[in-house]
């Protein structure tokens, strides 16, 4: 069980993880775009894509043969597929929100509400 860094694209683990990642991409990217409050929505969508990619690699490393010689025993394609959909979309949305918060923090004056002086208006 030494480190292998072996990716077999014909293995059911890779196929299930890949299609779960593909299905999670529209979910994560759309939600990150829709929930974003910053002007640079492209950076938020890119952050969501990177988060989903990290989720894909995490499942491939955990269950598949990215790190170890043999895949996890008793792993089936359905569990890997649905786990990949959930983990990749959650990781993508989390990193997208984190990028959104970092951008909003750096440019906070663009996102503050203007202060009104009600005494001058009346």
Automatic annotation (TrEMBL):
| Annotated TM spans | 12-35, 42-68, 80-103
Q: Key word Transmembrane helix present in the record?
A: yes
Q: Which UniProt keywords apply?
A: Membrane, Transmembrane, Transmembrane helix
Name of the protein described by the UniProt record: PTS sucrose transporter subunit IIBC
Native organism: Ktedonosporobacter rubrisoli
